[in-house]
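Dear colleague,

Thank you for sharing your sequence with our group. We've completed the structure prediction you requested, and as agreed, I am returning the results in plain text so they can be pasted directly into your records. Please verify that the sequence below matches your submission; if there's any discrepancy, let me know and we will rerun it promptly.
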Amino acid sequence: MTDRLQGRTALVTGGLRGIGLAIAERFVAEGATVWVADLKAAGDADAAAVTGRLGNHASYLKLDVAQESEWQAARGAIEAAGGAIDILVNNAGIDAVGPVETMELERWRRLMSINVDGLFLGIKTFKTMLEAQGTRVNGGASVINMSSIMGIVGYAQTSAYNTSKGAVRLMSKALAIEFAQARAPIRVNSLNPGFVQTPLLDIGMQRWVDEGVAEKAQDLVDQLAAATPMGRIARPEEIAAAALFLACEDASYVTGIELPVDGGWTAQ
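Please find the predicted structure tokens below.
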């Protein structure tokens, strides 16, 4: 590792598993202090196991990203610990699949509250802190919003997820311009993974199986791998490497982009 985040502090939502955990691990390995946020209670065994793995440079926060009061509490906890963040990774998210005519409004709204409202609330809550800390970093503070290739291209029976990730992509561009024009030292970019071997993917594939689309979840994963030009799906660590680039000073002139990490999917 190269210590590219030495002296930096990050907050990573959805950090207990999958891509979020991989990002937290890579950031710590590169010298950062990381606040891992997720839905588990502070004393939960899973949370303790993750912070134990990450060592003294990681702390845990319980955070429901759809609740503004919990974002404010998270900021208060960081400040009470004498800390401040200069990297915000909005990674927490859920999916929802199925035909539009059978999509319940409640399910649609829950997805939007987490995938879209959660980003808005996080950036709103931490904007002044990020701006203050960004003056100390070459290129400024970094906000990394987890979009998806589904925020770039459509896919059958994923209209809700497509919509949410498209919103993330354009919110990132809009805020990048807003902050840059105001000369606020905050870069905002979206990271757009392709299909990644994570618990969220496993849940989504099993849902398709339950709806009769396939007999086995692995069959669906194999189909996705075959449809990807590189012939496989990604590992979480590969997405974390892209997040590291967007977070560090190597990306000091990078704002407002969407960065696909998709094995060539969107190049087709």
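Summary note from our side: Residues 105-134 form the longest helix (30 residues).

Kind regards,
the structure core
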